[in-house]
Amino acid sequence: MINITQRQRRYRINKWIRKITNQLYLTCDDVIYPIFIHLEDDILIKNNNFLKSYSIQNAIEEIKIAYELGISALMLFPIIPSILKDDIGSYSLNNNNFFFKAIKNIKDNFPEIGVIVDVALDPYTSHGHDGIINSDGILLNDQTVVILANYAKLLAEAGADVLAPSDMTDGRVKAIRNVLDENGYNYKLIFSYSAKYASSLYMPFRDHVGSYSVGDKFNYQLDPRDLNGSMRKIKADIDEGADAIIIKPASFYLDIIYRASIEHNIPIIAYQVSGEYAMMKCAAMNNMIDYEKTLLESMISFKRAGACACITYSALDYAKNIKKY
Ligand code: PBG
After folding, report:
1. Is residue 16 assigned to a domain?
2. pTM
3. For strand 309-312 and strand 31-37, is the pairing parallel, antiparallel, or unpaired?
4. Which DSSP letter does residue 54 get?
5. 257-297, pLDDT tens digit by residue?
6. Which ipTM score applies to this complex?
7. CATH of residue 299
């Protein structure tokens, strides 16, 4: 034997010592499951983007599986047929919007599951932007906020527990908080997408909801080079009444998750977006990585950075595989 002062491998030499000395524990409570809901009666699987979408009835069956696996919360998105889209996303405020019926149905069937709903107009607008735009493609802030607050109220009425504005306008959190409180929804929460970067990783999602935008979203989403912008936006959203902060994408933005968790005393939720999911799936399909192992490792990295939960299309796969660690 040579004389080694620190035999650190003692901590790694077998499974039980690794288990009791590790500082992270994987649980189903780490994940929030996103579900897309469409009007038709079939399960639609687009094999070019790996995402699925469900009719209301099929969504209920899928949520039953998630619930039985121990998932506590969902993130819901509508897929709106293009004939119902227009420049100002007016179907979002239509009382007959099928998405409201879907939320009610889900909540009636699963009163214990947390229903988070994305609040933005991109599924509803013909141009795919998150709100109203002018002829130069600039998002009109205040007009958009008014619509979003009304939409949030209808979502709350339908049964949503959490409103998650993802449009990156200014003042939306306050406007949503006000409208919720005025209507007696004092206990509905707001999870604000405060650090939402204008990322190339949203492409499968945009393909799925048909929201390929004219131009880009750099006039409202954050420039990936902007470190301080996200901290400023997080602070503003907290001051306006946000109950938790969502950071997206997750993998390329671990530094932002870390900084946010150090600087702000509020739950931080990471969003492993569609492009991150697609990268794992594609590499695995080509036998270049092991999907399950990569998934668990990615989730561990979000937790290490300081996230308390992660919105991930892999939520069910995660729940099924956490025991393997
Ligand atoms: C829209 C929204 C987007 C995503 C979630 N909400 C797309 C966008 O900003 O264009 C993307 C999520 C994903 O890629 O999985 N407000």
Report:
1. no
2. 0.96
3. parallel
4. B
5. 999 999 999 999 999 999 999 999 999 999 999 999 999 99
6. 0.98
7. 3.20.20.70
